Amino acid sequence: MAQLEIDNLSVEFRTRHGVVRALESVTLSVARGEIVGVVGESGSGKSVTAYTVMALNDEAAQITSGRITMGGIDILAAQPDAMRQLRGREMAMIFQSPRTALHPIRKVGKQIEDVLREHAGLPSRDLKQAAIAALARVRIPERRAEAYPFELSGGMCQRVMIAMALACSPSVLIADEPTTGLDVTTQAVIMDLIRDMSRSARMSTLLITHDLGLAGEYCDRIAVMHAGHVVEIADTESLFDHPAHPYTRQLLAATPVPESRIETLHSIPGQLPDLRSTLPPCRFSGRCERRQPICDERELPWTELTPTHLVRCRFPL
Known about the structure:
By secondary structure, the protein is α/β, with parallel strands linked by helices. 31% of the residues lie in helices and 25% in strands.
């Protein structure tokens, strides 16, 4: 049973330069204990999806259709006070820019204590030790609990954010590029921690990443996004072995693997479409080598290749 469900979600941003159709008919689900990866280029809508789920979008954002539920709770209908209670206790997010997410003039240990006091209901005498334990899980020594964010490296600030997100053992974790700025060894420690919590505590994790290798190693399923569309969803093995959407195949061809050489890597031709313009049913059609006139004329269908492998393309591979 899905713990987090996103159904037919569409989001627009009204700007002085026009309406940006950032998401269109996005459908995703994450079961208990499952890690679902969301991959795609910058501008594909990955972070907008995350911020919409957490009800943290800018005031310019307008949800034009869709439904988001977490454990049966309708997120889009929840009052602001109810959402504040859910965030931190039941839902948590690791932000992409830790320095802007942390309070600049409050010690990092105290910031974790604030989260525990608000959402975990711990007595005051236990807060400090609980915060130190949360930092220890991400390899930050006790003495660093007294540091301010500006005294820490970017990678260490990222680990503080991860410690804060996991401190209350949330039911749903949204990790937006959680390993940005971390060295390879620490990346493995953090991702192992997220995977272990997903398995042991049955935490549902939505992992947003540019790193297909990371997604391939840690995710149970992967959703591929392009220009506000989800174009393919599959279990990880099927996606890597048999990519069905032309965009997915090109993403994989552009991803380095240990045996890669410069001449074997391929860039994806063209650019993302202008999301303020009139868009065709398939937003990838302008970059697609398999494009046919019908791709610009009719609604884009979902094709079920297997019960766990869906692709949104008229001419899948």
